[in-house]
Amino acid sequence: MIKCPNCGERVSTMAGTCPHCGINIAGNLKQCPDCNEYCLNTQDKCPNCGAGLSIVTEEVLGQQEEKEKTETIEQNETPAKKSNKALVFTIAFALLLALIIGGLFYLDYKNDIDREETEFARLEDTSNPEYYNDFLAKYPKSKHYKEVKERLNVLLDETEEWEKLIQNINRSEIEKFMNTHPYSRRIQQCKDLIDSIDWSEAKKLDTEEAIVNYLNTHPNGRYAEEASQKKNELGMTKITAQDKAMLRGSLENFFTVAMSKQDVSLISEAIPEKMEDFCGTEEATPEQIVAFAKNKMAADVMGLHYTIGDDFSVRKQTVSDGTTGYAIDFTLQELISRSDTNQPNTKSYKVSALLNAEHKIIRMSIR
Fold it and tell me: Does residue 248 share a domain with residue 233?
């Protein structure tokens, strides 16, 4: 029995309504947290002590009823039902754990396979037997085991031959090695060695033909760019037979005509306005050159005649104005006509001359 929160008369908490004021009682009560007196759900203040209260709505009441119902059902469940639920949960957990462990084992297995395939692929780029032995030791059950073992045996034989080869490198032995081991990973090294040997020989010969032959054999060789530059240089310095004949003719005119006759006008045609150097005389004029020739004319000398030797060598050379000229070395035979036949009538000289692009003599030494 409690005091009705609305009229204050005594009423049972089990009563549907208050017999005195008619307000709903059953399911419509709550207790004040301060004085524990019963109040209506709709009251926001305790009628006994005045403490503030929260209003309980129908929705909250429904949730409370549902919770109480669920708790009642759970409390009334039989031990057999509880045991079945625990078993189902245990089985589900075991299956999940098995899946996780199985997945981890699969990932680990797959990673091992991937590592094996990666290391097997790397063997394609090496000729070191240690890598092959390492693979065989790590993966004794590999599907590639037999193949790697066979390749290792071939590689050991090849390595022995290679070590002998590098002790005495020559082109024929390298070619023999390449023919014996056409699929060797050292084939590129062999090609590089042959490339270096061929270039070394071409440079030693230092001829346009040798350089062109290297380029034809190794168009993409390590030294192809250097060879192309060398070819151009040799082409610029190459002396044709026609060039050589014209240069010889210019020098023959100088000696056999101009010097023999000691003719100033003829010497002027053979040189620029002045020679830069003529037998030690700088800026030598035609008159000075004629004086040099006349000094050779002793009292009994009636004439001088000259013959250029066959050792006539020509090379291109840059002259003082930056253009390309010709450096020439040759022997010169001097035949002297004398009235005194008891005197020597021949002399031999070494001549070095420099002619410009117009075949004019700009330097000369006579020894």
Answer: no
